[in-house]
């Protein structure tokens, strides 16, 4: 069974493959379809141009350029591309370049001649209009020789007239007529409105000036011989119809060619892209030219080894090669890549973690608990049933239509929403739960359960204090607090304590992952030197505070007849004036606090010195052992035959060079370095335990701000409209509801939601992940065609 | 209604967590287990804190905008 690989990254094996040259492409293609091998670049020191398969890549790139060209022709001529079936095989991929070359020639010729024909058609059309215009206007007079006739874009017409007027100092007659059909413009490559114009003036100098102005404004100037206009018109029309016919024929040929190729161009494109991937992968292999052998190294998830082996065998059998592809596993000290198997729900959460840093190989993956803790922390800041429900609905809409929307191009914001749809769905759900806890529904409260308070008998406008019924509101905050004058005093105290406890629990939970990591990596020394003293420090200050908060709640202070102590002062006194108890919380408090203070202070030197001292002892032991041992001689390769010796050495050199690229030998650190590092870590840990706990108070601040803002919005919009009555009241309710609803969505849900989300993200990246996350890995990037096929489909 | 409600809630959460652990779907087993148990625990935690905060109130709600009764 396959490992789920979400709590830890999947176990990896480094495999070496000997592939004979004849089947190398088929092998790599099959592995690309399988998509489980992360090939190591064995030629990292060789530049891209010196690798073995540069020429094939050039040729494939050229073919890809040709397919892009064909696609662009199809787009401009409105020919639809047939959808690509991702499993489609292209037979005879070797003949593709020749096919594409011929196709490119044909199509380019057709497109070029179409363009040429279009421009000659344009000239003829424009000339005909000019002639007609000239015949109409100037037919009566015989002064055609003193004119400049032409066609200009209609936008430029007014400017042309004005400039001519100024340049010729009013010494002219300017006339124009709109052409009633749109005319092709070869510089803009589209149909535009144009006009015929005539400038009548006298003197060759002025005429010349008018003509050059017209040409400068992209007008086409046509010479009209003052001979038989009607004859020339006839002539023009015949030529035009000829050109039209040829043009139409060319266009038809082009379209039919494009339609022919539209069936297969998508599949060709996909096959070529795969081909490029294959050659790029082959370039990572060591190529032994004499033996026609390729040597590859790659990381494979251990539970996929059998699949890979089967794949290799089936290809070898299908092509019946003499030397089968051999795969051997290598023992290595190199760090394997990190591979978490995610699904569509966990993917978004994993991305959130990976953006911060990719997990080290096999360490606890923070992406797993984040699935719940992230939306929950968000919800604590965003608690409102109504706003949570809106968010839930929006995400649900996308989730239910995810297949349809997967291809929808809606811009960056939509893409972000789409990838995070399950995150937002969960955020909405948890916000509804916390909304129940805060008893907030669009800032209104619900009276679902029996309240713990009753109002005593009172007069109107009198200040009344509720009387306890000894009942506790069972689920969430009592609705009697809603609208009370001292509502905020109560909620502040509750939410502050809530954030401290939740924050502490979250950090403690994260801290235990460091224990899980240490145990998994058999780093038992770190458990004793780092984890345990850190835990004692963390428990004896903020653990104690959290327990005191809960204990204080369980005591009935009125019954005890004592003053409830201030926990804040208690914690401050615990450090500044040890042993001094102003208001006792419980018996024996003094001894307990002195003990805890001692434990916290005592754990600091342990944190500071234990690890460096332990490491120094280990180093000394190692040193002793090394001195007592002989150094191993480098193993000598038995040289089997002379012919192979040279190439063997070549290959071995290459492999060894590359083996040493990630420094296998541990850099020996001096005791001083370790000490300084540990001192920094200790100080950081102690300070962070304070600052991170304080940082969780943002839960309190944001949730308070959110509930206050929604309260204000209600009071300023919808509540106002309830005062008016009659028609005005009806209109006001409708208008105010629109205002209230749109602001609720825009400000309270989208804006506040974004801000709460960023805060929740920070709580995970900084406060939680700093407790255990190493994050020095690199992602597993298997050579796979899956993404190519998905993009093409 | 007393502090024991919170303990009872804890027991209920533990039982529900055990059931969730046992009967989580076999596909993506770890994800289901982790998410269900974490959800139960966090929801319990928040409920318990909210309940405890109102168990022995140090303050009572006051208003002066009520109609005569």
From TrEMBL, chain A:
Cellular compartment(s): Membrane
GO BP terms, alphabetized: vacuolar acidification
GO CC list: fungal-type vacuole membrane; vacuolar proton-transporting V-type ATPase, V0 domain
The keyword Metal-binding belongs to this UniProt entry's keyword annotation: no
Residue spans crossing the bilayer: 376-400, 421-438, 498-516, 528-553, 594-614, 728-751
UniProt-recorded Gene Ontology molecular function terms: ATPase binding; proton-transporting ATPase activity, rotational mechanism
Pfam families in the cross-refs: V_ATPase_I (PF01496)
Principal cellular location given in the protein's record: membrane
UniProt keyword list: Hydrogen ion transport, Ion transport, Membrane, Transmembrane, Transmembrane helix, Transport
Topology with respect to the bilayer: Multi-pass membrane protein
Statement: the UniProt record of this protein carries the keyword Transmembrane helix: yes
Family affiliation: Belongs to the V-ATPase 116 kDa subunit family.
Stated role: Essential component of the vacuolar proton pump (V-ATPase), a multimeric enzyme that catalyzes the translocation of protons across the membranes. Required for assembly and activity of the V-ATPase.
Protein name: V-type proton ATPase subunit a
From TrEMBL, chain B:
Entry GO CC: endomembrane system; vacuolar proton-transporting V-type ATPase, V0 domain
Cellular localisation: Endomembrane system
Domain of life, source organism: Eukaryota
Record-annotated membrane-spanning stretches: 30-53
GO molecular function, one term: proton-transporting ATPase activity, rotational mechanism
Pfam families noted in UniProt: ATP_synt_H
Segment forming the signal sequence: 1-20
Bilayer topology term: Multi-pass membrane protein
Example GO BP: vacuolar acidification
Keywords from the UniProt entry: Hydrogen ion transport, Ion transport, Membrane, Signal, Transmembrane, Transmembrane helix, Transport
Similarity remark: Belongs to the V-ATPase e1/e2 subunit family.
PANTHER family referenced in this protein's UniProt entry, alphabetically: V-TYPE PROTON ATPASE SUBUNIT (PTHR12263:SF0), VACUOLAR ATP SYNTHASE SUBUNIT H (PTHR12263)
Protein name listed in UniProt: H(+)-transporting V0 sector ATPase subunit E
